[in-house]
Specification:
Elements lengths: L2 H23 L10 E5 L4 H12 L4 H14 L20 E7 L4 E8 L5 H11 L4 E3 H10 L10 H11 L13 E6 L5 E7 L20 E4 L3 E7 L1 H5 L3 H10 L4 H16 L6 E7 L4 E5 L5 E6 L2 E6 L4
Parallel strand pairs: 3-4
Antiparallel strand pairs: 1-5, 1-11, 2-3, 2-6, 5-6, 7-8, 8-9, 9-10, 11-12
Helix pairs in contact: 2-3, 3-4, 4-5, 8-9
Bound molecules: glycine (GLY).
Glycine binds next to strand 8.
Length: about 325
C-alpha cells in the first residue's frame, strides 16, 4: 500500500471512530450493522421492519423500499402519506413520491398525483418503465393507470370520501403538520436505495409540489457515499437541496448525524429564524445512521438484524 493510500485508510478509520464516538455521545445505539433500514417518524417502524425482512430474505432492495412504503401509504390517520392523507385547499389529496437506486444513479418521481393507491410504485415505474425521471399531475396518473397500478375513484366524490373516511378516521390534530415517510435502505452487499412518499402540506394550493419528489431535496442516494431523506416543510428543504448537501458532507467524511446538523445549521443561519420544521435522516455505506431536525418531537425508526428501534431526535 503506498503512502497516500495508507494515509487515506487511516484517515477513514479515524473518521469512523470519531463518528462512532459522536453517535454514542448523542445516545444513538451502536452502528455499522448491515443490512440497515432507516425511516422518518415512529409510524415508519412497520415500514422499516418490513423492508428489513425483505432484505434478510434475500429480496431486491427496491422491493424492500417500495413494499415498506406501501404499508405507510395504506395506513392510518394523522399523517400525510397516501390517499388517506391530508387534502389540498380544493379538498383533494395530491401525492408526491420518489425512489432512487444507488447503482447507476437511477431515479423516478411523481408529483401532484391523484387517485393512485401507491405513489411510490408509480415513481418506481417511472424509473424502470419510462425514459423519464419525473411525471406530474394528470400525465403521471395516466401513466400509473397504464402501468396497471391500483386506483381509487377520486372523480366520484361520494365514493372517494367514503373510502377516505375508512383510511383516515380523524382530522389531523395539527393541520399544518407534515409527516412524510422517507425510507433509506443499505443492503448487506453495500447497495443503497431510498424512497419518499407524502400527501404534503395540508391545505396546499392545488398543484403545489413539495420537496418529496424532488431529487436532492426530499431524497438523495449516492451509492458511493450514502443516502438522506427529509420530512417537514418542503419549501424550507427544497430551496437548499438539503439531502444532496447532507450526502455531499458525508462524502467529505462527516458521519450522518454530523452532516445533517451541519446542513440544518447552514439553513438556520441563512433563514435567521427557527420555525423551519425541517427534519432529516441519513445513512452511509459503512452502516452508520443518524437523524436530526428542528422539531423536538421528530423521531425516527431504525431496523437492523440486531435491533428495531424508534429513536428520539438527538438534537443539533
Ligand atoms: N415534506 C413534504 C412536503 O412539504 O410536501
Amino acid at each position: 500500500m503506498n503512502m497516500s493510500r495508507r494515509k487515506f485508510v487511516r484517515g477513514a478509520a479515524l473518521g469512523l471512530a470519531a463518528g462512532a464516538a459522536a453517535a454514542r455521545a448523542q445516545g444513538v445505539p451502536e452502528q455499522g450493522e448491515m443490512p440497515l433500514v432507516v425511516g422518518t417518524w415512529p409510524f415508519s417502524k412497520f415500514s422499516t421492519d418490513a423492508a428489513l425482512k425483505i432484505l434478510l430474505d434475500g429480496g431486491p432492495i427496491l422491493d424492500a423500499v417500495e413494499r415498506g412504503i406501501w404499508l405507510t401509504e395504506d395506513a392510518a390517520p394523522e399523517k400525510s402519506v397516501g390517499l388517506g392523507g391530508r387534502p389540498n385547499a380544493a379538498g383533494f389529496v395530491q401525492l408526491d413520491a420518489c425512489i432512487m437506486f444507488g447503482p447507476g444513479h437511477k431515479a423516478g418521481s411523481v408529483a401532484a398525483l391523484e387517485g393512485i393507491r401507491h405513489p411510490i410504485s408509480a415513481a418506481r415505474r417511472v424509473m424502470e418503465k419510462s425514459t423519464h425521471v419525473m411525471l406530474a399531475g394528470e400525465g403521471a396518473r395516466v401513466f400509473a393507470l397504464e402501468q396497471g397500478l391500483e386506483s381509487i375513484p377520486v372523480d366520484d366524490r361520494e365514493l372517494y370520501e367514503k373510502w377516505r373516511q375508512t383510511r383516515s378516521a380523524q382530522p389531523p390534530k395539527k393541520p399544518g403538520n407534515h409527516d412524510t415517510i422517507a425510507l433509506l435502505a443499505l443492503g448487506a452487499d453495500g447497495t443503497i436505495a431510498g424512497g419518499c412518499s407524502t400527501s404534503g402540506l395540508a391545505g396546499k394550493l392545488p398543484g403545489r409540489v413539495g420537496d418529496s419528489p424532488i431529487l436532492g431535496s426530499g431524497l438523495y442516494v449516492d451509492n458511493d457515499v450514502g443516502a438522506a431523506g427529509a420530512t417537514g416543510v418542503g419549501e424550507n428543504v427544497m430551496r437548499y437541496c438539503a439531502t444532496f448537501m447532507i450526502v455531499e458532507f458525508m462524502r467529505q467524511g462527516l458521519a450522518p448525524h454530523e452532516a445533517i446538523v451541519k446542513v440544518i445549521q447552514r439553513i438556520i443561519q441563512s433563514e435567521r429564524r427557527d420555525d423551519l420544521h425541517i427534519n432529516f435522516i441519513a445513512l452511509d455505506k459503512h452502516g452508520r445512521y443518524g437523524a436530526a431536525g428542528t422539531d423536538g418531537n421528530f423521531k425516527y425508526a431504525v431496523a437492523t438484524p440486531g435491533k428495531s428501534l424508534v429513536l428520539n431526535n438527538p438534537g443539533l
